[in-house]
Amino acid sequence: MRIRSAMAVSALAAGFLTVTVGPGAQAAPADPTTLVNPFVGTENSGNTFPGASAPFGMTQVSPDTGGQGGYDYDQTAIYGFSQTHLSGVGCGVMGELPVMPTTGAVSTVDPAKYASAYSHGDEQATPGYYRVGLSTYGVNAEVTATPRTGWQRYTFPATAAANVLFNTGRANQSVIDSEVHIVDNHTVEGRVHDGGFCAGHDQHTVYFTASFSRPFASYGAWRGSTATAGAKDAAGAGDNGAWATFDATTQHDVVLKVGISYTGMAGARANLQQETGSSYDFDATKAALHASWVDELNSVQVGGGAQDRQTAFYTSLYHAQLHPNLAGDVDGSYAGFDAKVHKAADYTPYQNFSLWDTYRPQNQLLELLHPDVARDVALSLVAAGRDGGWLPRWALANSETNIMTGDPVTPFLVEAWTKGLLKGHEQEAYALLRANATSLPPADSQYNGRTGQPFYADLGYIPSGLKRGVNCADKGGDNDCDHPASATQEYALADAALALMADGLGRHADAQMFAARGQWYRNLWDSSTGQFRPRTTDGTWLTPYDPVPADHQFHEGGAYQYQWLAPQDPAGLVQLMGGRKSTEQRLDAFFAYPHLLTDPARAVHDDWISSPYDYYSKATYNPNNEPDLLAPYMYLWAGAPAKTATVVRAAMTLFTNGPDGMTGNDDLGTMSAWYVFSSLGLYPTTSGGNFLALSSPQFPTATVHIGQRQLTISAPGVTDVNRYVQNVSLDGRGVARSWLGWDDVSRGGTLRVNVGSAPSAWATSPSAEPPSINHAAPDSRRHVDASIRGLNVDVLGQAPGTLPVSISAADGWTVHPGALLLKSNHLPVQQTVTLTPPPGAPPGSYQVTVTVTAPGANTVTRTAPVQLP
Questions:
Q1: Angle at 308 between CA 760 and CA 670, to 5 degrees
Q2: Burial bucket for residue 544 (CB in 10 Å: 0-12, 13-18, 19+)
Q3: Which terminus of the chain has a smaller tally of CB atoms within 10 A, N or C?
Q4: Contact (CB, 8 A) for 822 and 831
Q5: For the segment 21-71, what is each residue's pLDDT rounded down to a tens digit?
Q6: How far is CA 197 from the centre of its chain?
């Protein structure tokens, strides 16, 4: 990631940047939109978009230049302004109906040829509004929006041939088929049927009705590469589109408003009519959306600090409130996961759930700032399960993509349940979650579900070496059986969360079962290496093994990044790692902590980051991705909370006021939510825990509006140097621990954090650490496994205590030693013994059988070819 902003360069040159507090500090702005830079993240795979969207809106009208987010800052041409975008995804997505103004004869329908050059010097963006000069045609293009409609205003030069092209055959993902119709001299309608997000098999359809502010003089349509003037219709697979031509000789402006829907044309028309009526007043629509964003961004008001820091904060707050998106029409109708139209009764339907990402901090930020939206999102997920028969993992519109792995929907919905957001729907939600956690989706459904569930339930982990379509269902997208080590950890944290819900609903037997499974993360802990390690289908450790790439058995990370993923039991993880001091030292190595003290901005680039999509090359923190987002807060369980402040501020140097000022993909606001929470000195480390970890805030003052209440956070004199918490009080009462209950925060009050330039003893005792939500006993199974590797036999055992193991071989082969005493103490422990051939055995290949037994455990027999040289 390139460093461009003055803030980052200053930090690089001189260690931590000192934020000015006092006369030079920035007060909380009256209009926070002035501190939002929508271009942040449009470069270097941040994959954000700079166009216009209402908060959580159905439409996101934005320029299309190419790239996974639709707009790549480094491109030099715009080929249209499409109606839908997602912020910060890792694959091309949505981008339906790019509309493009041109001048002159319509001589080509190839977007690469009718695209226009543009300059960043003739481009501007603010929340709810985007403008650019299209220099090829001399057109000024502007966009704004309402929740379900996209608005565009084109100011043409004087010409008799001012064109507006509708390309229904082009999107930012694969278009399956489309259609477009010239309805009358004001109206164009159609639909786009597309899908295939990343490697998914998803499909959805967007319907649109487009209405112009004045009649067009002529029109045409195209199929494939053939454009036909006067044609009104085009439909089918491949390239389709239509155009309208205006006489702009004297009247240069044309306003276009586009209503969209996922239910059908009637829904698109109703959305357009109810939200816009007969108005074509672009400026009034822009002003209304601006006011909406002012209200949204004023949900948190920060004061003090440098302007670049405030810009990073408010840009993050903006990005965190773009998704999820409205799914329903103005009458509550929505497209279900059964491809049927339903009507929501007691909630507003939402869609686009990047759950593997957003279950971490973005969900909790919505709960804090917008509990009404968080409730609707949670009930939309329950409806998705009801309609489709299963809960999704990564849902795009009304289809499952099966992207990413693990079981993120469980911690997401359990988190909502703990806040009372599932009231009246608890039993239905629990039934869906239980089915998802204990069984597989129907074979003919679109869902992969927990593909490793049968193995996990039987073995306590998902083994390495399973095959898609043979051992595991394969319905496109990602698969737990491809990344079994991380999927095991994700299942365990999900089960621990589900145990809380089961217990709260009186399902005590279920609660006991799921709580026990919450400890199964330990079944992949290799105490000989001090790392999580994949186990093969034979049950033994994957060998040979390098924990940095980890044979890609962890999803988008190696064993080092995933070593912290046990948010349900951080205290237990600390004990596995040898205790608090040992864990602190491990964290120091993981973060390259000594380097952070001298030159943090350089260290994060040199020591942490390789490139946005390089997940498997370093043994250090990767702030570009979600698996280790909570890692800076693990210091709270290691008894060194002061170090959290150092690491968090180092990571914050990656958030700058430039197009590359985003750390990796924003993933529908997830990374932005991390920045917002961390700037407030609060962080939700585990779903369902109902607490927030404490650290030092970034700004001297912050006011968080929570419904009718407000939380005032005060950190007098805080800077990057004065970053260490000395003491904390809430409403005048001392807080000796490094966390606050969710209710303590959500009821409002005054949180005062006194800081200094040196670490203090605050919250360093074991009694001050945050809770671990899972306290179940470790796995008590007695089991042995074995695998033959040449003349070596790996023997792995697991038992509550010490496990005596006997090993023997058949047909005159012997094993040395023939007995082992494995000190397990609930953990898998492995030793290797040696095979010796019968005396006088000549060179050649032999089928060798080995048997391993242990009292009170199973007997395992392995047969494998052994080559004697």
A1: 75
A2: exposed
A3: C
A4: yes
A5: 333 457 777 899 999 999 999 999 999 999 999 999 999 999 999 989 999
A6: 15
